[in-house]
Structures are given as C-alpha cells and as structure tokens.
Amino acid sequence: MRVGFVGLGVMGRPMALNLARAGIPLVLWNRTPERCAPLRAAGADVAASPAEVFERADTVLLMLADEAAVDAVLGRGTPGFGGRVAGRTVVHMGTTSAEYSAALEKDVRAAGGAYAEVPVSGSRVPAEQGELVAMLAGEDSVLAQVRPLLAPMCRESFDCGPVPGALLMKLAVNLFLITQVTGLTEAFHFADRHGLDRARFLDVLDAGPMASSVSRMKAPKLLVRDFAVQAAATDVLKNNRLIAEAARAAGVASPLLDVCHALFEETVAGGHGGEDMVAVLRALEARTDAAPAPLAGPGGGPA
Questions:
Q1: Measured distance CA(213)–CA(177) in Å, rounded
Q2: What gap in Å lies between CA 216 and CA 9, rounded to an integer?
Q3: Distances (CA, A) of 77 to 97, 160, 233
Q4: Under 8 Å between Cβ of 95 and 239
Q5: What is the pLDDT of residue 60?
Q6: Looking at residue 294, what is its pLDDT?
Q7: What pLDDT sits at residue 160?
Q8: Choice between 293 and 78, residue whose per-residue pLDDT is larger
Q9: pTM for the whole thing?
C-alpha cells in the first residue's frame, strides 16, 4: 500500500521522515517544493500536485495548517473532489474546528471515500523523535487500517469515539498546554523582574512537583531567550481561537484561556508570530514596561 502525505511544515516534515525511514512507501507533496528534499533523499517520491498524490496513494495523510488548506488539497467544492477521494482513505491530522471535521467526514463518505480524524499532541522535537501522542476518531474499520501507520510517528494513541471526538480531545489538551506554558513564562518573568537568579529559579521549579516534560523543554529556552520555533506563536493563537470558539458554542467558561488569547494576540501583533510559543514572554515584558511606576508611600514603599 502506497501512502500519501501532504503538508511538510514544522510538524509534518519530521512525521513524514519517520514514515519514510520506517520503510513505508510514500508519495508526497508540499506547497513549498524545497521542503521535500530530505524526504526525497529518504526514498519518498515527490508528486507534482496534490491530485497526483491521490492518484498514486490508497491512504493520504494531511498535516495542513488550516481548513482552507485542507479544502484546497482535496479540491473540496470543485468537480474534482469526488474523483480525488473516492476509494481512498483521507486521514486528517491537523488541527481545525470540530464542526469542520464532522462536515468533511460527511462529504468524504458521500463521495465514496473513508475518513479518519487523527490529530496529534506534541511539538517539533517529539515529532522528530517519533514521540507524538495520537487521538483517533472514526469508524472502527477505518481506524484499524490507519493505526499501523502511526507507529513510526507516535509513542501512543487513544481512540476517542466517532468524529469529531478526537479533535475535541485535542482542543482540551491544547487548552492545558497553552495555559501551562503561559503560566511558566509569567512565573519566569516575575522571578526575572524581582532580580532573582533565573537559573536557580528554574532549578527549584525542576526539583518540585510542578516539573514536567513541557517545563523541561521550555524552561531552557526562556533562560537563554531562545525563541527558535518548536510550536509557533501564530499556531498557538490559532489553536486558542479554536478552543475559545468551541467553549463559547458549548457555553463553557474559559477565563484562563481568554487571558492567554489576549497575550498571544499581542505577541503576534508585535511581530513574533514565527517564534516559539515562549515568545509570549515578549508580551509580558511589554505590559510590564508600559505599566506606570508605583507611587511611593510615606515610608518609601508603594502608596
């Protein structure tokens, strides 16, 4: 079985490389052709168009940035859509709204194709290491076909029922990730502006019960102001919006998420959308620097 892969971004390229290195015959396409070079070197075939990927593959994995990109690759809304997906399995691995995925499944099945919703949790480094966590939704027979393809990319996978259960699960996980990293960054900023030894602060954090694989990945980046992307601030803002929309639609309160939403909007507006999510530090610093100095009281302290 030849497998198609479309979307070689920060996450998609290492995922596809792990598939190729595992010996899975791949045919792939990416909007920016030069990103295909490492895959070609690893033995994958590079298609000239998304249509060629569907012509040559039985199962096509999509790791695309947004709903518009997915629709464009599938030719959804055009006469070519049915011919592209009929008899094939479409595996949607990106992060979109749950409502979009449910509608896409309906259209793919109506056109004679099969559909699986398989978003993944993790950033660039876990993707490179094949340590992502997959969430699966769809018909059991389809998931049974897709599940073996996940082994080179993911250390664990979880069934989440029918579509869009996997995407809703991904949004819930991302809510925790966004608030966790923002909280870590704010605590680091607090320690820094109080003149504490920042490395010692991170050592204390790492020795305590709040330490996690996320803090151990992000804390060193904060210490040396390394904003090289693992999970881009722009993508975090997109995810934040999707979660907020899902929360509003269900009447669910999300006060912590709403604060993070504002901070990531400020980060992206400041020109840092292509940097790692810890660049939210820049928004925190900007707020602190813009705040008026506290008034001195009679004893010299704050009034």
A1: 11
A2: 24
A3: 18, 28, 31
A4: yes
A5: 98
A6: 76
A7: 98
A8: 78
A9: 0.92
Residue 150 has a CB neighbour count (10 Å cut-off) of: 24
Q: Are 272 and 300 in contact (CB under 8 A)?
A: no
Mean pLDDT of 118-147: 96
Supply 278's token pair: 């810890």
pLDDT in tens, 99-131: 999 999 999 999 999 999 999 999 889 999 999
Q: Which two tokens stand for residue 291?
A: 């705040």
Residue 170 reports pLDDT greater than 60: yes
* Rounded-to-integer distance, Cα 73 and Cα 67, Å: 10
SS3 46: strand
* Rounded Cα distance, 163 and 168, in Å: 9
37-45 own/partner pairs: CB under 8 Å, 24+ apart? 38/13, 39/8, 39/13, 42/17, 44/5, 44/16, 44/20
